[in-house]
Amino acid sequence: MSDNPQPSSTHCGDTSPATPSPNDHLRNLLQLVAQSDRPAFAQLYEATSAKLYGTVLRILKERSRTDDVIQDVYVTIWQKAAQFKASRASPITWMVAIARHSAIDELRRQSRAPHESEDVLSQISADETGAHEHIEHEQDARQLHACLEELEANHQNMVRLAYLDGWSRADLAAYFEQPVNTVKTWLHRALKQLKGCLAS
Amino acid sequence: MTGHDDIDMLAAEYVLGTLEVDERAEAAQRRKHDSNLDAQILAWEARLAPLCNEIQDVAPGPDLLERIERRIAVLETEKDASESSTTQLLGLHRRLRFWRWSTAFASAAALALAIMLVVPFDSTPPQPPFVAVFSQNDQQPAFMLAVDLDNRRLNVQPVTAEPLPDRTYQLWIKSAELGPDPRSVGVLNDDLSLDADALRDYDPDLLKQATFGISIEPPGGSPTGQPTGPAIHGYLYPTDQRGRSQHL
């Protein structure tokens, strides 16, 4: 797994403009897609669909809903490729953002069954362990992890559950047995601390 | 809390996904015209993006790309259909006049080509030849298609188009009478020519009204029977005053 070449082309948070080929490759493909180049679109799909599918499935938990959202996501990418500004975002971050927002919108439209399991937190820490081998060479990722580690445990878990699993304030309030306003306050505190840490 | 902080937290929670449904919809609208909010959102997307490396890649089902491509093909067909409205037709007429009267200023080569196309057919009047100009992005014409309606013979000429490695050009015809989908006229030969009899089965009146398209396809032509690559379009225009006045 550690020498799997595939994930490197779709690393998230790869925002450095000096990064060589994988991101450049996606950028070139997006440029071609902006000119309605269908073979380039198929290549872009091959290079990114597992990443986007995993992201949306993690939030929606159901394959059939994920299938629908992923279709919308790639149609949106086809339509908006011309609006992608390489100077403002990395291509994979831009695509993941489209996927996450579509998944969260879908989740809010029709919420799935309430989170029944007690083991969500053990699940996220397990994933985290597996993830290190993907991202160990990426400074952005290391820094974000270091900064997340500095947060209070509950704050850190809230950020993860919201970002990765699409939990709403109400979901978090129920899980952490806190009023919604307290959750909002905690989230803001966590996000500000994170931003300060990342800027330092 | 200052206004700046408010926007920063709005952006952060928008990216995190924890805004209430109405706040979220409002933020999505507002970022379209509020460049400051949009910039903060992009900054937060970049900050939190490494988190998604914690998510395992999951391969989608094998047929999903095909379903997406089908939806895109429908969208593109609808776009083409709305573009071939009167406005586009008038635009093309104007462009044709541009080609006919001011080609000398624009491109001496294209003028030479137009003459080349017209001459062989002019030797057999009565009906003037019709010409379609295929131009990409309103720039130089890529191809010209001349059709002798009486004899149902065609002549495709590349202007700026060049043979592509591992790709072929395919000529399509589209007309309401032929149904919603384009039909293949034929795959262009390596020298970008096409069999002169390729249109013999079509009625001249239909040919006059039809849209023609040239798309870029894999070797041997579209595997699906429909254009799969980028396409350019043209209408047939008469090349003399008599025909033109009928057409306008």
Automatic annotation (TrEMBL), chain A:
Xref: InterPro entries: RNA_pol_sigma-70-like, RNA_pol_sigma-70_dom, RNA_pol_sigma70_r2, RNA_pol_sigma70_r4_t2, RNA_pol_sigma_r2, RNA_pol_sigma_r3/r4-like, WH-like_DNA-bd_sf
Record region (Disordered): 1-24
Molecular function terms, GO-annotated: DNA binding; sigma factor activity
Protein name: Sigma-70 family RNA polymerase sigma factor
Coiled-coil stretches noted in the UniProt entry, renumbered to this chain: none
Assigned protein family: Belongs to the sigma-70 factor family. ECF subfamily.
Transmembrane segments: none
Record-annotated RNA polymerase sigma-70 region domain positions: 44-112
Keyword list, A-Z: Sigma factor, Transcription, Transcription regulation
Gene source species: Halomonas eurihalina
GO BP annotations listed: DNA-templated transcription initiation
Record NCBIfam families: sigma70-ECF
Location of the RNA polymerase sigma factor 70 region 4 type domain: 142-194
Compositionally biased region (Polar residues): 1-22
Lineage: Bacteria, Pseudomonadati, Pseudomonadota, Gammaproteobacteria, Oceanospirillales
From TrEMBL, chain B:
Gene Ontology annotations for the cellular component aspect, listed alphabetically: plasma membrane
Keyword ATP-binding included in the entry's annotation: no
Domain Anti-sigma K factor RskA C-terminal: 106-230
Residue runs in coiled coils: none
InterPro entries xref list: Anti-sigma-K/W_factor, RskA_C
Keywords tagged on the record: Membrane, Transmembrane, Transmembrane helix
Transmembrane regions: 98-121
Record bears the keyword Membrane: yes
A GO BP entry: regulation of translation
Sequence segments annotated as region (Disordered): 216-248
A Pfam family it matches: RskA_C
GO MF annotations, alphabetized: sigma factor antagonist activity
The protein's name: Anti-sigma K factor RskA C-terminal domain-containing protein
